[in-house]
Amino acid sequence: MTPVTEATHALKLTERINRIEPSATMAAAAEAEKLRQQGIEVVDLTAGEPHFSTPQHIKDAAIAAIQANFTKYTAVAGTAELRDAIAQRHSEDFGSGYKREEVIASVGGKHVLFNAIQVLIEHGDDVILPVPYWVSFKDIVNYAGGKCVLLHADEAQGFRVTADMVARLVTPRTKLIILNSPSNPSGAVMSPEDQTEVVRFAAERGIWVISDECYVYLNYTGREFSVGSLHEYRDRILVCGSLSKTYAMTGWRLGYALAPAPLVSAMAKLQGQSTSNPTSIVQKAGVAALKGPQTCVKEMRSEYIKLRDHVLAGLRSIPGVQCTQPEGAFYVYPNVSAFFGRPGIKAAADVAGKLLREAHVATVSGEGFGTTDHIRISYATSQKVLDAGLERMRKLFASL
Ligand SMILES: Cc1ncc(COP(=O)(O)O)c(C=O)c1O
Fold first, then answer.
1. Which fold, 72-291?
2. Where in the chain are the domains?
3. Max CA-CA distance within the chain?
4. What count of Cα atoms within 13 Å lies in the side-chain half-sphere of residue 69?
5. Which single residue of 102, 197, 338, 370 has CA 20 to 30 Å from 87?
6. DSSP per residue over 273-309, as a string?
7. Tell me, which fold does domain 6-53+296-399 have in CATH?
């Protein structure tokens, strides 16, 4: 018999898990947590989530669901009630008119994207991805065996992606284009005209468009828009939505896709062999969020606009820091390259590292989002916390 050695026990992981990296945003938050555990008071500006509490009527619906024993499995793609509520909310807000079979509810927007990309992308398929990108897009595509073709947005144009920029990268290998407007991390918003042109161009060539609209209700341009409203091109569009940011429900884990019924069915097949349905009581909370008063969404949005203006003015007043004006979401993405070449600083990661270790301000370095000159700051926090962070940054940058 072969003796059992250390080598035979060595952990041999799959090639596909080694293709992806841990989430940079989660890693940055974990670093901040480590310092906190040492008793250091950290100003944490890494959070990709609202600082607001989930509105009371949504919490009440979940509590009522538990009391009513709504605690069993549901249909994999979500209850009919929830799927209808998702379709109805979207129709009311964007005139889309999706039907129940074109809706799937999943365990957060990230889960929607994971399922969709697993179902659409074969090994070697090209996926056009605008840079800066939200950290998970690249890794989800890599996990599926796809190849990201990076579209570098122009900082001088506020990182806005245009249809021309997308069209220039399309080849016969292009299977999918990912749009994310408003964008995490840049806050850039694509114009409705450019989004329309991208989906028209893609549909003509049989290319899929995934439009990640997790921040669609945090669009500050006054031109709220969903590509789901473009009826004529819908056989190649998947709209990804989430209740996380809209209703301050990040921990509840509820997202959805609006897409052609055959794609929804394929995603439900995959979901049925992994998580099954999103949590039953969360689905009831989701119905309350989508069908209840939307004033909470508007109130949070007004608050974010004030916070954005505040943090932007503060950052722009720090010598050496440059920052484009975000038009949506709740992040600013300042350029800190003016400090490269100062002692110990070669890249954005060094700036973020110094901010954390010396000023105790946690931010996320741009490398995780595909750029080398930036750090991401979340302004989904109180003005008091932002002011403390800005003051510490000002001092640190002045000392470099
Ligand atoms: C652009 C973008 N898409 C999707 C998500 C996923 O959100 P969730 O899974 O909480 O719905 C996030 C979260 O930060 C995001 O920023």
1. Aspartate Aminotransferase; domain 2 (3.40.640)
2. 6-53+296-399, 72-291
3. 73
4. 0
5. 197
6. TTT-SSPHHHHHHHHHHHHS--HHHHHHHHHHHHHHH
7. Aspartate Aminotransferase, domain 1 (3.90.1150)
What is the whole-number distance in angstroms between the Cα of residue 125 and the centre of ligand 1?
23
> Which of 106, 110, 256 has most ligand 1 atoms within 8 Å of CB, for mutation?
110
> What is the Cα–Cα distance from 30 to 40, expressed in whole angstroms?
14
Give the separation between CA 349 and CA 28, rounded to whole angstroms: 11
Full-model pTM? 0.95
Q: Is the CB of 278 under 6 A from ligand 1?
A: no
- Residue 155 is classified by DSSP as G
255 lines ligand 1 (CB under 6 A): yes
Residue in the block written with tokens 């609202």: 50
Contact 85, 286 (CB under 8 A): yes
Residue 87 and residue 79 in contact, taking contact as beta carbons nearer than 8 Å: no
What the block records as the tokens of 211 is: 């439009």
- The residue among 372, 387, 397 whose CA lies nearest residue 319 is 397
Give me the amino acid identity at 9. H
- Amino acid letter at 215? Y
Place of tokens 């090994």: 123
Instruction: From first to last of the 400 residues of the chain, give the pLDDT tens digit.
Output: 556 566 567 889 999 999 998 877 788 888 889 999 999 999 999 988 999 999 999 999 999 999 999 999 999 999 999 999 999 999 999 999 999 999 999 999 999 999 999 999 999 999 999 999 999 999 999 999 999 999 999 999 999 999 999 999 999 999 999 999 999 999 999 999 999 999 999 999 999 999 999 999 999 999 999 999 999 999 999 999 999 999 999 999 999 999 999 999 999 999 999 999 999 999 999 999 999 999 999 999 999 999 999 999 999 999 999 999 999 999 999 999 999 999 999 999 999 999 999 999 999 999 999 999 999 999 999 999 999 999 999 999 999 8
Sheet with 364-365, edge to edge strand ranges: 331-332, 375-378, 364-365
Domains 6-53+296-399 and 72-291 share a fold: no
